[in-house]
Design goal:
This protein has 235 residues and is of the alpha/beta class. The protein has helices at 12-24, 35-44, 61-71, 85-91, 106-129, 160-171, 179-187, 196-209; strands spanning 4-8, 28-32, 49-53, 76-80, 98-101, 134-137, 140-143, 148-151, 154-156, 177-178, 219-222, 226-229.
């Protein structure tokens, strides 16, 4: 069965063009040109993936994302026209799977869509195969099935990408992970050459996990190489 993609964007020409492209590439595409129409469409015909413009006129995309997350786990790719928005988008605790800037290359967007859909299917398979999978690194515990992180037995709220980044660092605890390794394992090969996405998520993880994010003790930078997660015991 074709994957269902909902495009929410107020640019009528873009919506029409992209819906055609998605259909031509084997997806079932539906569209909405306002936030409220998009939210109604999600209720009526739940999609497998949402392409969501940040700059909607009636309700901004970030608010739409919050509403989507209240009762569903549909992956979202943000569409943004302004590069300066990226740091804000990536640092929010919203759980967007990905982002792409306008104007975008259709082949790149299609590759990102395929990656997100494949990653979500793989995550579901992993949980089904290992329902009790748990990773412990010092006083940090990661419950893969429940998608919960605890620090000294207290829950830590992490968006999906930050959760996956922490998982990769935890699996390789004590080892240095290069930027390229993190990009490939967390975001996919399509993000090679975009280290900013790693920098932002590392900073965000530090804000959640470090006592002093400006002087990290858990997630260390190995200058010129990458990052590593160091176990810390509760004191």
């Amino acid at each position: 069965m074709s994957k269902h993609i909902l495009l929410i964007d107020d640019d009528a020409l873009l919506v029409k063009s992209l819906a055609f492209t998605l259909t031509q590439n084997g997806y079932r595409a539906t569209t909405a040109t306002s936030a409220h129409a998009g939210l109604a469409a999600i209720e009526q015909d739940p999609p497998d993936l949402i392409l969501l413009d940040i700059g909607l006129p009636d309700l901004d995309g970030l608010s739409v994302m919050r509403q989507i997350q209240k009762d569903r786990a549909t992956p979202v790719i943000f569409l943004t026209a302004r590069r300066r928005e990226l740091d804000e988008v990536l640092g929010l605790e919203l759980g967007a799977e990905d982002y792409i800037t306008k104007p975008y290359n259709e082949d790149v967007l299609l590759a990102r869509i395929k990656t997100v859909l494949r990653r979500n299917e793989r995550s579901t398979d992993r949980v089904e195969e290992k329902p009790d999978a748990r990773i412990v690194v010092g006083d940090i515990a990661i419950d893969l099935a429940a998608h919960i992180v605890t620090l000294r037995d207290q829950p830590v709220d992490l968006a999906p990408k930050a959760f996956e980044l922490l998982r990769v660092l935890a699996v390789n605890s004590g080892q240095v992970m290069s930027l390229n390794e993190l990009l490939e394992q967390v975001w996919g090969a399509e993000f090679m050459g975009e280290p900013q996405v790693v920098y932002v998520h590392i900073r965000w993880l530090r804000q959640k996990l470090e006592t002093d994010p400006n002087h990290p003790q858990r997630i260390l930078t190995v200058r010129g190489v990458g990052y590593k997660l160091i176990p810390q015991q509760a004191g």
